[in-house]
UniProtKB/TrEMBL annotation:
Coiled coil: none annotated. It comes from Winslowiella arboricola. GO terms for molecular function: carbohydrate binding; hydrolase activity, hydrolyzing O-glycosyl compounds. The keyword Transmembrane helix does not apply. This is M60 family metallopeptidase.
Amino acid sequence: MKKSVYLLLTGVVMTPLVAAAADAGPQENYWWSGEVQNTGFQQALKQFDLTPQQLTSDPQTALARSRDRNDPLYWIKRTLEIYPADNGREFKIPVTEVHANGRARTHAHGRTGHFITPIFVQAGDKIKVSAGNYNDNQIDCSVSTGVKFNDENHIFDVIKLVKNSNVEYQAKQQGTLMLACFDKTRDIQHYETMVPITVGSGGKTHPIFIFGRSSQQEWETQISQTPNPLGQVLLFSGRSRLYAPAAKAKASAHDDIISLMREHLLMTIESDKVNGFDSTQSALNLPTQGLINASYEGCCSAAGGQGLVRIGFSNKLRPTAWGEWHEYGHQYQFGGVTWSGLTEVSVNIYSVAIQHLLTGKVNAKACFQNKSDKDGVVPRDPDAVVNFLKSGEPYQFDQGGSGTEFARMVMFCQLLSSYDNLYPQLGKAWRAAYHYGDNAAQFNTAQKTKDWFVINASRFSGHDLRSFFDKWGLGYSAAAAAEIVNLRLPAPDELISEPEPQPEPQPEPQPEPQPEPQPEPQPEPQPEPQPEPQPEPQPQPGYPAFSDNTVYHAGDIVKSRNGKLYQCKPWPYTGWCTVKTAAQMLHYEPGMGLNWKEAWTLYQ
């Protein structure tokens, strides 16, 4: 993938940093000052057309960029803080979110907060692990062993650390020593906190590839050739920890691993941008500090727990392509674009966005009607919505069905192509409306979610999109249509130059007449609610009691031990409805578990 395409499309070109720093005066001690001679750091910066000297020539711009969570410099800086030079044993571990809290905040798949170290342990090894100071009322830190990174559940023998103290960790099986710190507050009050953790002697060091520290030569001559005893070669891109089987790593020894790590980092940043995760201080809109767990062993899937993506599409660590973009995209899908089985449809919003970022083109099949794989990639159409209304073919979107994934994706791509800021605004609005799951009941049917989507797509595009959705065959309610009408937006083919300020004064006169007629109809509906409770007791005897080891699906209704009825939530939470272990029962038993609201809603 060409770096120039990325720079052109994002505008991330440090134009003020063109002067060489050779003639600069005395240098201050910036975060990069100690890395200037590090070849791995130089090679990582080169991926973004930067040098250490450019950073020093305009330090204020460089420092501002390294505080921007949508900028690669932010994540490179974080990586250098996490991992000491020369495979040392003094780490600074970022505080990430408790799994359930992260999913509730983002309404997307979870991430892993367990960071790899270059330390490999055998069963029986004893190692002292000391943690520095942190708020242990709200943060839990731990040490564990990572074993099978191709599995969703791959973290074993977790031992809690004690702040300002030593803990002796005894390994029960061989694997990679892992470190983690979790913020137990739901609004991530300890965002960007890093906890110093030191690992004492013991175990054996197996080098891992760290983007920003490790060099291409180290990859070719050492890291790719030195798997750990489990046959694993581990890598870290800044936001993903990656596992490659020994054979695939060795086969990729002379491939450009620096460029590949750049692509893995950019995939996460671009997906954050699509969802509206930015550098604002609103907790709902902060990018996760957790990690993608990418495995080159299995293929081709994504799982909601621990950020797992299986991307073993080749016998090598190939440059990223549609498969990798697609599986990464699954980790970013949120409820506002995934009603009624759209999992394999709307995921490609992210695939297309990443593809356009890295190549400047888009998949013709995913963005234009009646295209196939043979049509390859094409430029994006900024007038896609208008052109579809003029000459596109009507479609029955709601009929769905297997094999229609790309045909229906075209609708989402047309919106992506026509309205640059639409999806970021939708992401922010959805998180505000969902609000950590407090308002999940407002979206407990596909129709409610669909109505929300068409209303807010119109609102944030600045156009009345009813004609667009009608032609696509996307069914929305009369109430949703009325709400769009009340927005008084122009049609998609009308310019928004003068009409924009018109909606602002409209709410002023509306409150005055509204209260007057309200008292009259109020007494009339009073007798109507009386029969409503009657249907509720009737179905209860017909619903089965909740049982462990029973597979539940979205919409299933069960009776809990507390006598109330609960309904299994739609994807991405459906998997939590089925419990098979005591730990899962503790968390997800409907109405009784510690985190039951993650999987169930109270049925009324």
